[in-house]
Amino acid sequence: MIITENLSKKYGSQTVLNIESLEIPKGQSFGLVGNNGAGKTTFFSLLLDLIQPTSGHIINNDVQVNKSEGWKPFTSSFIDESFLIGYLTPEEYFYFVGDLRGRNKADVDALLSTFEDFFHGEILGQKKYLRDLSKGNQKKAGIVASFIGNPEVVILDEPFANLDPTTQIRLKEIIKELAAKNEVTVLVSSHDLIHVTEVCERIVVLNKGEIVKDIQTSAETLKELETFFAG
Amino acid sequence: MFKRFINLQWKSFFRSSSFGKGLALKIVMIFFGMYMIGALMFVGGFLYEILRKTFPDQSPMWVLSGYLVYWILIELFFRYFLQKLPVMDIKPLLSFPIKKSTITHYILGRSGVSGYNLLALFFFIPFGIVLLLHGYPVLNVVLWLVSISSIVLCINYVNFLVNKSDKALGIIGGIIVILYGLDYFQIVPVKDFFGPIFHGLYEYPITALIPIVMAVSAYALNYKLLKNKLFLDASLKTKTKDAKTSDLSWTKRFGDMGTFLQLDLKMIWRNKRTKAQVFISLLFVFYGLIFYTQEVYANMIPMFAFMGIFMTGIFLTNFGQFIPAWDSGYYSMMMAQNIPLRKYLESKASLISVSVVAMFLLTIPYVYFGWEALAINFGSAIYNLGVNIPVILFFGSFNKKRIDLDKSPFGNMQGTSATQFLIMLPVLGLPILIFTGAYYLISMEAAVILLSLLGVIGFALKNYLLDRITEQYRKKKYGMIAGFKEKNS
After folding, report:
1. pLDDT tens digits for range B198-248
2. How far, in Å, CA of B206 to CA of B191, rounded?
């Protein structure tokens, strides 16, 4: 359960995020949509305690994230390439993350084998460092790394961007599977309304830092979102 | 078109990240640049006198001519590291309606006026002026300078031709060593052989045409090669090397810390800038050879302390001052992952400790110059381990400037700020001050014991100090994350 209370972030006089209250129950697959500058990444960064809130706080499974590091063991994320270590090969990176999450090599290998389809033969055994992979392949590696160690909360910022069509479809399957497990909360942000309506049970629309819509996904959701963004 | 290119160049220079740096750093860099230029001009201006005094029976021009061959080779050798054709800069131009020949001329012409070429002129022009003052014929001197400038351009363009493989570097290095060896052991008089050739450039002004033609040909050759390769997949592609995975499972023996130790070792080994740091540190072991052999210093015991702190702590200062900026590329991940900050810092501390011990072991042979050297180095090493490691880690928490690991290590000031200069005071200055004080008040033995004692105390308080440092890093976390994200800082 993730509880947000009176959360705001200001840079100077500009308010980039202002959420009075938002509760995400455990096990929900939660989608965040909005135009550039709506505050999606800001919200995720606050959730990961990468930036300091101007006011308010976020509580992740009873842990207030800007007070204690206790949320780290059960939360994993992939925000952007700065979450990758460029001079490691993908394998080394997975093992490193595994180490941090108390998984040995065999555990990580077992998990990776379930993603063979997703990797499409372009990640493992390539003799390339992460910095030399294409943007799309970097993203694949980062997303899969966030699944290592059975996290209870998975945060993915724009996971569909830069991926090829086949991979996008596979990723949707993966996220749906993950969300089907009741104990895993998945938070996804996206610019692609179709993808996000397909994988998320609930969609929140941010506009200029404020929540303007909070929808339980249904057959009409896509239409509703399209009308909203058409302005 | 060229006017527009020059405009671009102008903007890229004044809007470059190095210009946006802090004022203090800017002043230091300008000062350093002025110093370099001043030194070159000074030596150039006095070279005539120096050569006349050292070789009274030969004309200075002859002596200089003999050495010119070495200058050319050595400059070529160093340019190999320092200068690369900046082909990547023209990538955005390719899709515009600009002729490929124009782009090629632009990039080659631009390198012709680069700072590297000017350096040699700062040296030779003052020399030429002095020649004129001594009544050398104007025509000869001026055309000789023209020849020298052409040779500089030759070096410039030949460098781009040979720059493609490391073999060329080995060959140039080999030639330098062989020529110098032949000369030194008087097997073949290399200087006497090349001397007349270069002196001819002065003697017969018309021969200035030869280097000019050579420079033009080198340019033409470069032009031909480059123009045909202006494609994204040819010369403009950044080369990727095959990744080598290394088994570092022995680091597991260090428990939780092993994970980070392994990461740090990979970081050092797989990135240019960190690798250079290690080599530079190792080179500084030989600093003692220059120092201990000088009679002047034999009785200046405090200088020994400087050597001790410096040699055993060179990696500590070089590498440690940029912690945690080395990890800046992925610092937000490190902060969001399941990483206890304390373990992260501990592993950095142990890595530096290993370096201090290793550097101390390497300096043991200096016992040859007296047991004082060994004793002082030992005391310094203990001090470095106990006191300087926590100090440098503490100051690391003030780092907010990003370091891109794969940028060239030469002349790279990225990540440097006023903090780096301030760190030097407590790290280098304080122990020397303590040592000197104890040495003059009591004795050298007491000074060594005092340094070691301080080190041991620091060591005993290690856990407490690390806790405090971790606290400090936690407080500065947000500033670091934001700072490390700024690509142009």
Report:
1. 888 888 988 889 999 999 999 999 899 888 877 776 655 555 667 776 767
2. 23
3-class SS of residue B116: helix
Distance in Å, alpha carbon of A89 to nearest chain B alpha carbon: 7
Closest to A92 (Cβ–Cβ): which among B245, B331, B406? Answer: B245
Full domain range(s) for residue B17: 2-227
- What's the pTM value of the predicted model, to 2 decimals? 0.77
Q: What are the chain A neighbours of B332 within 8 Å (beta carbons)?
A: 48, 50, 79, 82-83
What ipTM score was computed for the predicted complex, to two decimals? 0.89
Which site among B275, B330, B404 would you substitute to test the A interface, given the most A Cβ atoms closer than 10 Å to its Cβ? B330
Check if B329 contacts A (Cβ < 8 Å).
Answer: yes
Among chain B residues, CA nearest to A70: B338
Look at B337 and A97 and tell me if their CB atoms are within 8 Å.
Answer: yes
Classify A2-230 by CATH class: alpha beta
**Co-location of B161 and B275 in the same domain:** no
Non-local (6+) Cβ contacts of B245 within 8 A are A89, A91, A92
Of B201, B237, B179, residue with least CA distance to B128: B201
Give residue for tokens 């941010």. A206
Q: Are residues B278 and B180 in the same domain?
A: no
Name the one residue in this structure whose structure tokens are 């058409």: A230
Q: With respect to residue B240, please indicate whether it lies within any of the assigned structural domains.
A: no
Both B213 and B316 in a single domain? no
Residue B211 lies in a domain: yes
Least CB–CB distance from B338: residue in A73, A85, A87 = A73
